[in-house]
């Protein structure tokens, strides 16, 4: 069972796609959001949840005050589960995009304050680097945007694109969470 940890929808359950996704554990989400809220005020934030799966990260952000979340998921079945979760939760600012993270990241559009990228562990480092570079190249990040990448703890730290500096890294068992932030000078 996956549920929203805190905020206005705290305790609400999320449907999870039947296979092919690995929802971020409650323990990791709780720690991640405690840290995130010390770096950034989520009230009114625009959030991008790449490789969204059930949408646990984006819905958690909405529950904690984000104004809008875009969920990007390439698997059609997972995107349908995301749409169902969006209908069941009380958040108006939700957009579900059934597209690859690489294709979405390279398109122009409104910028985001927070980006979550939680790809399947099998996704290669080069693809992650390409997605992050695409976000920067397409101007999809605000001046101080925070990027959070979740990987297997045995994976290397993501290659941050020019203009993004690493903030921190934290391991939780077999999961590692890497943080980067857009440099306000660049």
Low-confidence parts lasting 5 or more residues at pLDDT below 50? none
Provide the CATH topology.
Rossmann fold
* Basic shape: globular
Structural class: alpha/beta
Strand order of the largest sheet: 5-4-3-6-7-9-8
What distance separates the N and C termini? 41 Å
Number of domains: 1
DSSP helix count?
5
Major sheet summary line = 7 strands, mixed
InterPro entries: DNA_methylase_N6_adenine_CS, RNA_MeTrfase_RsmD, SAM-dependent_MTases_sf
GO molecular function: methyltransferase activity; nucleic acid binding
Protein name: 16S rRNA (Guanine966-N2)-methyltransferase
Keywords: Methyltransferase, Transferase
Task: Explain how this protein is built.
By secondary structure, the chain is of the alpha/beta class. It has one domain: Rossmann fold, CATH 3.40.50.150. The chain has 5 helices and 9 strands. Helix 3 links the parallel strand 4 and strand 5 (94-97). The radius of gyration is 15 Å and the shape is globular. The model has no long low-confidence stretch (mean pLDDT 92).
